[in-house]
Amino acid sequence: MTVTEYDSLFIGGRWSKPSTNKVISVMSPSTGLHLGAVPEAVETDVDRAVRAARTAFDSASGWSTWEPARRAAAMVRLADALDARKEEMATRVSAQNGMPISVAGPFEATVPAGLLRYYAGVLQDAHFEEQRQGLPIGTTLVRREPLGVVAAIVPWNFPQVLAFFKMAPALAAGCTLVLKPSPETVLDSYLLAEAIAEAGLPEGVINIVPGGRATGAYLVSHPGVDKVSFTGSTAAGRQIAAACGQLLRPVTLELGGKSAAIILDDADLPGSVDQLFAASLLNNGQTCFASTRILAPRSRYDEVVDFYTTMAESATVGDALDPATQVGPLVSSRQRDRVESYIAKGLNEGARLTAGGARPVGLETGWFVEPTVFADVDNASTIAQEEIFGPVLSIIRYDGDNDAVSIANDSAYGLGGTVWSADPNRALGIAKRIRTGTIGLNGYLPDLTSPYGGMKASGLGRELGPEGLAAFQQFQSIYHP
Ligand code: NAD
Prior knowledge:
With 481 residues, the protein is of the alpha/beta class. It has 2 domains: 4-255 and 458-480, Aldehyde Dehydrogenase, Chain A, domain 1, CATH 3.40.605.10; 259-447, 3-Layer(aba) Sandwich (Aldehyde Dehydrogenase, Chain A, domain 2), CATH 3.40.309.10. 37% of the residues lie in helices and 21% in strands. The protein contains 16 helices and 23 strands. The chain has helices spanning 43-58, 68-83, 86-97, 101-104, 111-125, 159-173, 187-199, 213-220, 234-247, 273-281, 301-314, 333-348, 382-385, 401-409, 424-432, 465-470; strands spanning 4-5, 9-11, 14-16, 23-27, 34-39, 129-133, 139-146, 149-153, 176-180, 206-208, 227-231, 251-254, 259-263, 291-297, 352-355, 372-375, 392-398, 413-414, 418-420, 440-441, 455-456, 459-460, 473-480. Helix 2 (68-83) runs antiparallel to helix 6 (159-173) and helix 3 packs antiparallel against helix 7. The longest helix has 16 residues, at 43-58. Nicotinamide-adenine-dinucleotide (NAD) binds at residues 153-157, 162, 180, 182, 212-213, 216-217, 220, 231-233, 236, 239-240, 254-257, 288, 387, 389, 415, 454, 459.
């Protein structure tokens, strides 16, 4: 990828000078080479961005007042502008965060336009006003209003997809946004800004403030913001929830996970190898919904361990931009340190390492860790309870379906999960007993039309589907007694 340097911020539909000369530099996790730099948005830049979003929202003829069909048409134009940048988008994301390019294409370069078109379609059938017969008397007009200015804060692991989990429904609802990307993935947000400008969205409907934690925290508590939509770690989510609690500000939180893959005793492992790999190791294990606790029945325990060991050892590890790569590098040296510290904890706690555990030979440049498998893991141990966010799997033994359900539920988190079985009804019965917001049968892929989100420490609220649109609306009842 060529080095890409930017010197402006995208605020109010224009490229404007940042208020300081602070910059965010991005380095390739695959090669260690400099990829580019963008200005860092500080408080005064956030003030300008919120003001622009506020004006776009509050104006008497602004975005929120447009007929749904007009908003839908603008969203489809943005989808077209993103489609025209597909290849560059996949390359930028993959080069920055280490996501294999074979994953970046179908996810980062494709899902955002799909979401815009899906919510544009939802607008065609949506009714934002409804007359009701009142009780005891009269009639009432029930209106769904857009919530207002949205602060959208996203992590680096799926930067475009997760931004559009928020932006597509927020735009459909009539909200305006300030998007804060993660410092690790800012270059893709500039490609997005170019698409927004080309699509002719009104000034200030989407504003972008690249920055870190301090910029995010300032945005969350900004008096001009009406709703916070956050995706990231549970630790940051708790701080954001506390800030929003003080302000009584609506907030949606998509947080961490430690999901279970429940392998039932009749599961066809060789027949599901691609699905099993994707469910647990997608994006180098840097996926919030990844099934990283593998629950194996005692009767097939050794076979399951051998299966995952072979899967890990045979995975192609390499430069994220190589189409053959299945497991790329971790996003940063800090993230690699974190993953390696969990591997050390696993060994200290007595788990049996059956694959990986070290840095791959021949990939000394970049932040690589071998796909790693631990067997004989106790579900109470640190590596089974804490989110590692890397290619590290823990295989846990269970005795009977009830034991599998109770181990799967013995977690602070409840975001994803999978059940693997030759019997669809049996798998469904188990899935219904897991305290998790989403779960897949013999595979896992979020469905854009259905609510997505977590229970317990995995979050509050839902994204996607009509429920994701409702997260950016509030009700007004106009009585006519
Ligand atoms: P992070 O919480 O460190 O950062 C996420 C984003 O929030 C970044 O843009 C960061 O700058 C910002 N931020 C951090 N602290 C903040 C604060 N106090 N106030 C405002 N903004 C703040 O997470 P990360 O390391 O970038 O991402 C990995 C985490 O995200 C994992 O825990 C993963 O499970 C989670 N995640 C969840 C989902 C989901 O849908 N539930 C999806 C992807 C990732």
